[in-house]
Amino acid sequence: MTTPEVVADAHSTDVMFSKGNWFHEKLEDGLIISYEIVQEYHRAKSAFQEVEVVETKPFGRCLITDRLMQSSLKDEKVYHESLIQPAMFAHPCPKKVFIGGGGGGAPPRRG
User: What global pTM score does this model have?
Assistant: First the structure.
């Protein structure tokens, strides 16, 4: 039995992943998503977690902790709007609010 010859075309993953720097995130068994990294800004590992801040082509600047994307520049507004707006609309006159967490600074901008 002969092994068929594999020819890599321009859309082959072999060719695609050999060019540039890629971050691969396993979402579940059998499903991995990949992001092309344009620039790496920060990488650190503590006793508690591994943190990376990178610039990706599709989402802009991203925060990644323990190899899982947490938020990105392009989707943070949608994420934070869905957290903040329901509480703001539920209150009859929200003038002062308590923000538990919110260390990234986005929730106060959305309120």
Answer: 0.62
